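dude i think i finally got it to work??
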Amino acid sequence: MESSSPDGTARNDLNTWQEIADYLRVSVRAAQLYESRSGLPVRRLSGGKSRVWAYKAEIDEWKRAWEARGHQISEEDPETSNLPEKEEGAASPATKLSPTLLVSVVALSVVIAAIAYLYRPRQPFQFGVEERSVVARDRDNRKLWRHGFPEPLQVPAYSTREQWVERGDLDARPATLEFLFKYVPLKFHEGAHMELWAFTEDGRVKWRFVPGKVVRAGSEFSDHYKIDSFSIVPAEGAVRTPLVAVSSNHAHFFPNQTAIIDGNSGLLLREYWHSGYLGHLKVSDLNGDRVPDILVAGVNAGYGQAALVVLNPLTLEGASGQPAGSSSQIHDPRPPREEAVVRFPRTCTAKSGEPHNRVSDFVIHPSGLDVHVSETHRDDGPSLTYTLDRNLKPVRVVASDAFVSYHSQLSRDGILKHAFDPREVEALLDQVAVERKP
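look at this
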């Protein structure tokens, strides 16, 4: 068994950027470039210090795949390195040309390149918002098009970390790209509806989607919903045409809708209702069955626990089950169709004053996923990172420095009657509830 430090970090893994860089035999800067640009599997703890670690086995697997594609690990920029080198002694074609002809060829090449650059098709690369419009610009920051909305936008909403735009193939024609834009009206908090808009690459409106509907769960909830996260589901395997998955939570209460939309038309195809905010949505084929899985995470209101739900975009429906007699049970005549549900235990720190813990983020990697669970309402507050394998089996849990400090502070204040013990964190793995659905 691997030995652990007080926060649960395995000592024989790579626990700093310097250790990761040394293992790759490159500089720290090069290792960070490989992580940001080439998928080097580096994990992060949520919290203020943003600590990192990596598994040697995963680094080795990534390195083998990288080298199998003809690349080499080097100090150079991974986006520009590994170009084939000219063999020593090989004559360059240019050396066989006369100086006059060489100058003419170079000049002609420059002219052709300039013409190609000036008349190349320009695609949207970045987006910005103004008071009533969204503006698309190319890589050179030149404006391509502008779309005006009838009502002003809530401009500060677009300066947060929340997702508001995504580009990809919506109509199964890879030669063209489409764009999803989250429309946040200025008067959203006065009842105006948030919407998801789809644009063609030249700025034409393809479709609009308004999330939510009136549902009942003890009482009736209005159709006023906030779009939290969305993603394009590519046409792969059993998914014949592109889809769009959208997770939206009620503006004031707990009902959450995960909707599957036809990518070409914007029509609602199916929906799944969950009691509790699911603000994080990602797409990945977890089990290798060639059907992309929809992973949504946040909190289960009835259980008061952080939750991760795995859904099949072709079959999802119904409403999540809640404890018997719970007032948070959403009424739906259809039974819930989920691939799996994972609930993470509340620690003593959350039980000391929080109604629930919650998933603040999760990261999918080759061997599984890391789920960051916050024990308070703050994203930079005390948290734990659970590592699950591709079958959702919990294999590791690590407490952040903020969690250890917060636990110690509660102990000093007399709110908790025991001091922090690393074994308390290790025991949480056995309390993770994993429900695989047939």
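Helices lie at 17-24, 28-38, 56-68, 99-118, 348-351, 401-412, 422-426.
im so relieved honestly
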